[in-house]
Amino acid sequence: MSSRPSGSESSGYWYGSDETRLGSVDVLNLLRRYRSADQEMRRRTRDSMGMGETDLLALRYVLRAEREGEMLTPGALAKLLGISTASTTVLIDRLERSGHLVRRPHPTDRRSLVVASTTDSDEEVRATLGRMHRAMIEVADGLDQDELAVVARFLAGMIEALELVDPHAEAEEAAGESTAAVAPADDDAARHRDGAGGESS
To answer: For residue range 32-86, what is the model confidence (pLDDT) as tens digits?
Structure first.
């Protein structure tokens, strides 16, 4: 049985797929399905750990920093999450009560604190996501260097394509085009009114 996406799945984009071979639309649909599966995995993880999306993201940032030998202050965590320091304080309070994070004195700055994970939270995340991570690594390990290079180039290109999207700029451009399209009509209407007025006098 082929694992190739069906034509109905390919209909999610603007062009139909070529049923005789794997095409760009099929690849984009597989990427879309991966993103959907990733979002569903995150939902299941949040539900199993009893956390909100921002809470789980904060915990992942802290665990990542610790793996890299770095420390996160509440202010640094707020910047990573893109939320206010006041909201971050509430979030850390909540994760402290649930036993996932703790505040500790900064080792070199007495005026500051760092946010650290607990042993229980690290083990919980490993137990929840460990199997998935191992399976994903096995898939990547199954590719040779040429295949890895192609996949890396494709994903880097997809990232660049997403970063091109600027809703504010596109909205302003659309508004400018709309104004430009309306302006000549307004000028014609004004000339028509002026002409009509001249004839009636």
So the answer is: 999 999 888 878 877 777 788 899 899 989 989 998 999 999 999 999 999 999 9
The structure's pTM equals 0.55
Residue 14 and residue 29 in contact, taking contact as beta carbons nearer than 8 Å: no
How far CA 189 is from CA of 133, 183, 198, in Å, comes to: 65, 10, 14
- Give the three-class secondary structure for 117: strand
Angstrom distance (rounded) from CA 44 to CA 131: 14
**140 φ, ψ (degrees, to nearest 5):** -65, -40
Contacts of 80 (CB under 8 A, 6+ apart): 61, 72
Q: Can you tell me whether residue 61 is helix, strand or coil?
A: helix
Exposed, middle or buried: residue 100 (CB in 10 Å: 0-12, 13-18, 19+)?
Answer: buried
CB neighbour list of residue 60: distance below 8 Å, 6 or more residues apart: 125
Output the six-digit token pair for 100.
């996932």
Beta bridge partners of 102: 116
Query: Whole-angstrom Cα distance, residue 78 to residue 84?
Result: 6
At residue 11, the 3 state secondary structure works out as coil
Crossing angle (nearest 10°) for helices 24-49 and 53-67: 100
